[in-house]
Specification:
The protein has two domains: about 30 residues; about 130 residues, Glutaredoxin, CATH 3.40.30. It is about 40% helix and about 20% strand. The protein has six helices and seven strands; from the N terminus they run H-E-E-E-H-E-H-E-H-E-E-H-H. A seven-stranded mixed beta sheet has the order 2-1-5-4-3-6-7, covered by helices on one side.
Length: about 180
Amino acid sequence: MINLTSRAGSSLILSFVVTVAIGGLVFLHLRNRPALASGDPCPAFRLHTVDGRWLTRDDLAGKDAALLFLHPSCRVCRSTLSRLCTANKPKARVILVSLADDSLTEAYAKSVCSLGTWTCGEDGAAWRLFGIRAIPTLVVLRPDGRVEHVSVGSNVSSDFFKYIGGHDEITRTASRGRMP
């Protein structure tokens, strides 16, 4: 039996509390971290495009590519996409991976810019393969099939222009020394 009023007992309780707290912080960090990290190989995937074709990892071999995971009803995704549509000649193939069903994705794809290839992943398989836990998420792939960068949430727009190229209005205006 441990005497909790002794100095040793108090130290034991303190050690336990600190261990649990640190474990909780590590869990929260890992839970919010994308499953893929820079340098990881791209998982094998197969996505159905809105025009009826199939797109696989092998179709992107030897090319820079960006996969943007989103949902048409997500306000942040829509805002991010409207900003990305200002891209002027992105230097990578852009794949938009929607979690919505085919008809919603197709209708949404027709109503916005033609930034890239729209795919439907309503079963969530590709999302699980890439470890997507929040949207929007941007996964940038190198020509060798490895992950270059992963970005989640509000950083997606700026990271898209940093890694994929093109310029948006904020970038152009800031380069002239003015903010919009």
